[in-house]
Amino acid sequence: MTTHHTRHEHGENHELSPEHAPRMEWAKHAPEVYKAMIRLDAASSKGLDPLLLELVKLRASQLNHCAFCLDMHSKDALAAGESVERIIQLSAWEESRHFYTPKEIAAIELTEAVTVLTDGFVPDEVYERAAEHFEEAELAQLIAAITVINAWNRFGVTTRAVPGHYTPGQFAH
């Protein structure tokens, strides 16, 4: 499954590194878990703004270094109307706050706190800021969506899911 791509720059061909193979196709070997994840993903997304949801999925995937999910959610965000500029700036959002609404920043902060639990807990001030911008039911959905993308990231990173082949809507059910 290793393919070689070429990058064209100023009329020259540059051979890119070979594509790695996945460690396993986990969905094929654990189909009931995969189906449950699809249902959980759909349930956690209900009622959330699609662009905000993609920002959350992208930020968690950046923190977890999940290349497959970064590929998928950057393409999904673009397809949903997100700007390239906001996607690029997301990894440095603290220096680029003016690209995002206060509600989006609260969601991004909560995403980071829930994703990086090695600091011990989700700080009260981060939770309270999110609670100021989200009604309780919407906040519950946001917490669920953050938890679900973290689960997807862990499947993707552990099994070395290969990025670059996703097209928006590919997994729509």
Description:
This protein is mostly helical. 58% of the residues lie in helices and 5% in strands. It has a two-stranded antiparallel sheet. It is globular, with a radius of gyration of 17 Å. It starts with 5 loop residues before the first strand and ends in a 14-residue tail after the last helix.
Please tally the helical runs, counting DSSP H or I stretches of 4 or more residues.
8
Measured as a percent range, the helix fraction is 55-70%
SSE pattern, N- to C-terminal? EEHHHHHHHH
Q: Strand percentage, roughly?
A: under 5%
| Average pLDDT | 92
Low-confidence stretches: none
Structural class by SSE content: mainly alpha
Radius of gyration: 17 Å
Distance between the termini: 26 Å
**Per the principal axes of the C-alpha atoms, what is the gross shape?**
globular
Strand order of the largest sheet: 1-2
Tell me about the largest β-sheet: 2 strands, antiparallel
DSSP strand tally:
2
What is this entry, summarized?
With 173 residues, the protein is mostly helical.
Itemize the secondary structure elements and their pairings:
Elements: E1 6-9, E2 12-15, H1 26-29, H2 31-45, H3 50-63, H4 67-79, H5 84-89, H6 102-115, H7 124-133, H8 136-159
Antiparallel strand pairs: 1-2
Attribute tags:
single chain, 173 residues, mainly alpha, two-stranded antiparallel ribbon, 58% helix
